[in-house]
Every structure is written in structure tokens, then in C-alpha cells.
């Protein structure tokens, strides 16, 4: 059960000052995302704001109900806080909660980036690499490592304005493995060369 469309439009208006609000299926409902960070969750007809860092402290201090989610028979307390009906009627308070949620989500995102570093700081990478990867939906080091060099290369190939070639594939693999491309292990290099020629041939047919 979702919230009425009227309420969704209301949420979109409240969050509009921070950018475009997107939604994605999550926990049997859908989450609300701004700037690649989850800020809210709609599930079982209720709306929850995500509470992290100082937002979590505030929401718990004022007694907002925490989301209890059942997974494989186990009850889990999640950092989402239900917004009661009375707050929907009190826009200035709702805006305060929304702002708190967004600022905390951005702060958490920055902290995570500082811990793991940015893509541009990896071996073989620079600002141009980071921007190009961002244009194909890869924004963080963890995403780059999860997707892998080959899939990243294929994504970049769809973005025609970025340089392509075996050198780029070596650079991506080196960035993920922590090597400069010139000192990639021989076996890895040979595997990438074979894969590259297979992909290159399939594209030219």
C-alpha cells in the first residue's frame, strides 16, 4: 500500500529546493532519492524520513516511531522514522525535518567519501576519469569496484565523447586493484587483452 499521489506531490515540493527527487523500489515499497542519497521511504502506506547522524539523534529525541522491518523471520530496527499525520498538517515543522534529513544524508555521504577516497585519487584516475564515470552512473569507489573494469569499460563505450582503447581498460583494472597500469600483473593483463579483442571484434562486425 502506497501513499496517495497527492502526498507524493507534496513531498516532491518540500524536497524540490534540494534537487530532483527520484524513487526506487525498496523494502516492498519505494525509497526517495536526492543527489544519490536516500532521504525517505514509503512502505505500507506510511512515509518515513531517513535518520542518520544528527537527524537520527533529533528524531529519536522527539519520539518519532522507528521502522521495524521483518526479514526472514527476524525483526530489524531501521533508521527510518515515521512522520505522523499531525506533521503533514504543519508545513514549517515538516520542512525542518526534511532539511535535517537532507543535510544529515549529505554529511554522511561526504564522510563515506573521505573514508574510501574519491575515484580521482585512485591509481591511473584523474578528474576527467571521475567526471566520465559519473556520467555513466558510477560516482563512488565502491561502485567502481563492485561493477568491475570490464563492465565500466562497456558503460564508457556508450558515452562516445570519452577516449577508448586497451589503455583505458588497463587503467580501470589498475585503479580497482591498486596498481599503476604499467605494472598490472601479467596474467590479468593477458586476460584483459583477450577480452578486449573479443569485444572489439564483436563491435566491428
UniProtKB/TrEMBL annotation:
One of its GO terms (biological process) is establishment of competence for transformation. It comes from the Bacteria. InterPro entries: TfoX-like, TfoX-like_gammaprotbact, TfoX_C, TfoX_N. This is TfoX/Sxy family DNA transformation protein. It comes from Moellerella wisconsensis.
Amino acid at each position: 500500500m502506497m501513499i496517495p499521489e497527492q502526498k507524493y506531490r507534496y513531498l516532491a515540493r518540500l524536497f524540490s529546493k534540494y534537487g530532483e527527487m527520484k524513487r526506487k523500489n525498496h523494502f516492498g515499497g519505494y525509497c526517495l532519492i536526492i543527489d544519490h542519497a536516500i532521504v525517505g521511504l514509503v512502505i505500507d502506506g506510511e512515509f518515513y524520513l531517513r535518520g542518520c547522524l544528527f537527524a537520527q539523534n533529533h528524531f529519536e529525541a522527539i519520539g518519532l516511531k522507528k521502522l521495524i522491518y521483518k526479514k526472514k523471520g527476524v525483526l530489524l530496527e531501521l533508521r527510518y522514522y515515521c512522520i505522523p499525520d499531525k506533521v503533514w498538517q504543519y508545513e514549517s515543522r515538516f520542512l525542518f525535518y526534511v532539511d535535517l534529513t537532507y543535510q544529515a544524508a549529505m554529511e554522511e555521504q561526504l564522510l563515506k567519501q573521505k573514508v574510501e577516497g574519491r575515484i580521482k585519487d585512485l591509481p591511473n584516475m584523474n578528474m576527467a576519469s571521475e567526471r566520465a564515470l559519473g556520467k555513466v552512473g558510477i560516482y563512488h569507489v565502491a561502485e567502481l569496484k563492485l561493477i568491475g573494469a570490464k563492465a565500466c569499460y562497456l558503460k564508457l563505450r556508450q558515452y562516445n565523447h570519452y577516449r577508448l582503447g586497451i589503455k583505458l581498460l588497463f587503467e580501470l583494472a589498475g585503479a580497482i586493484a591498486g596498481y599503476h597500469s604499467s605494472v598490472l600483473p601479467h596474467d590479468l593483463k593477458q586476460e584483459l587483452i583477450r577480452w578486449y579483442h573479443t569485444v572489439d571484434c564483436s563491435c566491428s562486425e
